[in-house]
Amino acid sequence: MSAPGPSLTPMSIDDLNVSTAVIRPGDPDWESARRFHSGIGEPAAVIRAGTVDDVRGALRYAAAERLEIMIRGGGHSAWGGVPGGLTLDISALDDIAVDGTRVRVGGGAQWGAVAHALAAHGLGLSSGDTASVGVGGLTLGGGIGWMVRAWGLASDQLVGAQLVTAGGEVVEVSDASHPELMWALRGGGGNFGVVTRFDFEAHALDGVVVGVFGIEGDARPVLRVLRDVLTDAPRELTVTYMDVPAMDPSAPAGAAITAVWAGTDEAAARAVLAPLASAPGVTEREFGPQDYPDVLMEAPEFDPEQPMPGFVGGNTLLPVLEDDVIEQLVAFRVANPASVVFLRSLGGAYGDVAQDATPFPARDATWFAMAGAFDVPGMLDDVARDAALQAWAAIETEGSGVYGNFIASADPSVAERMYPPSTMARLAAVKRQWDPSNVFCRNHNVQP
Q1: 242 pairs with which residues across the strands?
Q2: CA-to-CA distance for 339 and 330, rounded, in angstroms?
Q3: Cβ contacts of 278 within 8 Å, gap of 6 or more
Q4: Mean pLDDT value of segment 253-270
């Protein structure tokens, strides 16, 4: 592997060759520039990059001004709310090009646009759940989505990338050219540079079958049936379970299971899901074919009049969904009226990937679990908050890793929980080669 180029020395701002303006507080575009999907930031400056050269210029500007850098694509990251630094908005780098099954996607594109572009060619990629989520953040963090059992993580489909290093070098990355850097990009986060283009290998997909089932009464026996169905289900099937209060705008209130089958064989999907559909308390709400882009939900943007409350809980990757974990998850929801519990099936193609083939943890996991109480003033006092933290901590011990993309925290200790020591050591070695000064630190940070 060739070493990255030397770091660029600070220079006059007039010499930075940024074709788009550096937007600072007080400028006419400031209010729109600092707003992102999940909040309103307080950076020292914002640069909206329209070209790869703009990205290079922005990195020079950050070096000259000694500013930390936060990369914004879809704008769902918690890092957008950390004050100071330079926000490098790459959302204009959103070109999508399809050549056979090879798909080249700009680093600032969003998954909804990618899904629509691929559907026109009878293709699909395993993305997340939300149309407005950025391709970059999701992929670099792994990317669990509706096709995770069929095709694995979003990062498992990544075959190449164009990356701008901290020193301004533009590097074409692949398994052949820079194998360790390519390994790190498949789940190591945005620690190594600005990815301005992702190259994916797509899959044939003529549509999906979607089933939604409501749950009334005790969810425990239903979850046991769901677990048993997924134990030997075809990998075309991925399911979620969600139980949310009426206050959560992302989903209807109550408990429900959503199943997505990769393909249009409705009879096959019905046959596999029959034990679930006939379980006591389960009611079919919808079942039938859809276009895959329509499965991706539209998440509401940040509303300063109604900001989202804090989240007391976490997530974990479970090797097995044991009865006692089901009990703990349901008990968590009952104990905290303003809370959410979420499960997603894994296994299948996700588990085909060897643990050391990517940085993503817990390839032995068969379920992803998340639970959290909403920290609403007047509803969650110190006693209830501590109880929720303790209840979640007990659940997390049942897992073998955590998923960074579902952690809405800028706490620097999160990265240590995401990666086992051997993986962190390997990531740190890659970091030392490509970003020894830790320019890219506003992320779940790997120290060089």
Answers
A1: 256, 342
A2: 11
A3: none
A4: 96
Residue 296, C-beta contacts closer than 8 angstroms, at least 6 positions apart? 111, 112, 115, 127, 128, 129, 130, 131
Give the mean model confidence (pLDDT) for residues 329-336.
96
Token couple for 313: 């809980």
Q: What are phi and psi of 27, to 5 degrees?
A: -70, 155
- Fold observed for domain 96-204: 3.30.465
- Distance between CA atoms of residues 402 and 391, nearest Å: 16
Domain boundaries for CATH 3.30.465.10 within the chain: 96-204
Residue 94, exposed/middle/buried by CB under 10 A (0-12, 13-18, 19+)?
middle
Distance CA 209, CA 263 (A): 7
Q: Which CATH architecture has domain 208-406?
A: 3-Layer(aba) Sandwich (3.40)
Q: Which of 390, 343, 363 is nearest to 224 (CA)?
A: 343
Predicted confidence at residue 251, as pLDDT, reads 63
pLDDT band at 119 (very low <50, low <70, confident <90, very high): very high
Query: For the chain, where do the domains classified as CATH 3.30.43.10 start and end?
Result: 18-89
Q: Which two three-digit tokens encode residue 151?
A: 């095709």
Q: How far is CA 25 from its chain centroid?
A: 30
Q: What does the block give as tokens for 409?
A: 């925290």
Summarised one tens digit per residue, pLDDT across range 371-429 is 999 998 778 899 999 999 999 999 999 999 999 999 888 888 889 889 999 999 999 99
Fold of 18-89: 3.30.43
Eight-class DSSP state of 448: -
pLDDT at position 333:
96
Measured in degrees and rounded to the nearest 5, phi and psi for residue 363 equal: -70, -5
pTM above 0.90, yes or no: yes
For the chain, what is the mean pLDDT? 92
CB atoms within 10 A of CB 213: 24
Query: Residue 192 has which token pair?
Result: 């190594």
Give 160-209 pLDDT, tens digit per residue.
999 999 999 999 999 999 999 999 999 999 999 999 999 999 999 999 99
Domain(s) labelled CATH 3.40.462.20 in the chain stretch across 208-406
Residues 238 and 146: beta-carbon distance below 8 Å: yes
Percent of residues in the chain assigned helix, strand, coil, to nearest 5: 30, 25, 45
Per-residue burial over 331-365, b if 16 or more Cβ lie within 10 Å, else e, is: ebbeebebbbbbbbbbbbbbbebeeeebbbbbbbb
Q: What is the separation of C-alpha 357 from the centre of its chain, rounded to a whole number of angstroms?
A: 19
pLDDT tens, residue by residue, 359-371: 999 999 999 999 9
Would you say residue 14 has pLDDT above 80? no
Place of tokens 């399809």: 98
